[in-house]
Design a protein that fits this description.
α1 crosses α2 and α2 runs parallel beside α3. The protein folds into two domains: 135 residues, 3-Layer(aba) Sandwich (Rossmann fold), CATH 3.40.50.1360; 73 residues, 2-Layer Sandwich (Alpha-Beta Plaits). It is globular. It has 227 residues and is of the alpha/beta class.
Length: 227
Amino acid sequence: MDISQLKREAGVKACQMVEDGMTLGVGTGSTVAYFIEELGRRHREEGLCAHCVPTSIRSAEALRKAGMEVCDIDKVGRIDLTVDGADAVDPDLNGLKGLGGALLWEKIVAENTDHYVWIVDERKIVPSLRGKVCLEVVKFGSGRLLKELEECGLNPSFKQGENGPALTDSSNYLIELDLGEIKDPAFLATDLKQRTGVIEHGMFLGMVDEVIVARENGVEIIKKAIA
């Protein structure tokens, strides 16, 4: 089974959780695109309606194209369910997100939802968090911040767009940290958030309630352990 089919299966499975009239957070990325596609099918064939809060302009456009209602997060109450993707997920259900550039809006939506779900294919399940951590940063002083991160050995670089540094939907810059294994994610998250100029980081620790994993032999649902 190819990767696109695995992503589709995860998206379809997550869409089964959506009930008519829900306030629904909708993430960003290639796997979420299949979730939006299935939302559109259910809207056309079943009359499904939901108040959708998108995490990016791209997702908002896809939702409108699918016939779904798009809402401003400030105009709704608590979000019933949010479905999003992830770039990496460890055994404790900590994750790395934001390589698509939507991490700030994704985290705002996640923190205002009652039930938070990630949809991934099996490649995203990893033994420990490692690789790229994305930061959304203000433009002013971003070069100095990059140098500061470089001096700390975090291997930073500006994420590039077609005509220079990539811009987020909030018109901020993105810095990617090319890391090896992250041995203490909580420490790194705190350290990054305290740095002046960093708006948000792409480490989502202890936030997700369940992960829908599309594997070659079927779909697996991993739920957060209840303490």
